[in-house]
Design goal:
Elements lengths: L7 H24 L4 E6 L2 E7 L7 E3 L7 E6 L2 E7 L5 H4 L9 E4 L4 E6 L9
Antiparallel strand pairs: 1-2, 1-7, 3-4, 4-5, 6-7
């Protein structure tokens, strides 16, 4: 009887895990290439920002009720503050990848990232 360190099934499993890990790293890296941040209030676009070009802090305060403050910096955009009751938009966090979206329903404000990038990533 031969003593094998790895059998066929073990090698296939190792290869599959390696390929999955490499795909995850590749997709994760390409997803952070940025895109265009689109800010809409009442279904009207009020601002479009190219996140690749944002290097310093940019503050956007749209005319909404309740008041919201949106910040773009270092290739990311996020709701910094909101006067709404539940603050779900603030807790959404920083947006940087195409497909990311944050919404403040009481202020009727939507921040979304558009652009090309992977469209089938599951987190």
């Amino acid at each position: 009887m031969k003593n094998r360190v790895f059998g066929k099934v073990d090698l296939i499993l190792i290869a599959a895990v390696t390929v999955c890990a490499l795909l995850f790293i590749f997709m994760r890296g390409s997803a952070s290439d940025g895109g265009t941040a689109v800010i809409t209030v009442n279904s009207s676009v009020i601002e479009e920002l190219n996140l690749k070009e944002i290097k310093e802090r940019t503050v956007i305060t749209p005319d909404t009720d309740p008041k919201v403050t949106i910040v773009a910096e270092n290739g990311e955009i996020y709701f910094e503050s909101s006067e709404c009751r539940d603050k779900i938009c603030v807790r959404t966090g920083r947006l940087s990848k195409p497909g990311d979206t944050a919404v403040c329903l009481p202020a009727k404000t939507v921040v979304s990232i558009t652009g090309s990038g992977p469209d089938a990533i599951t987190y």
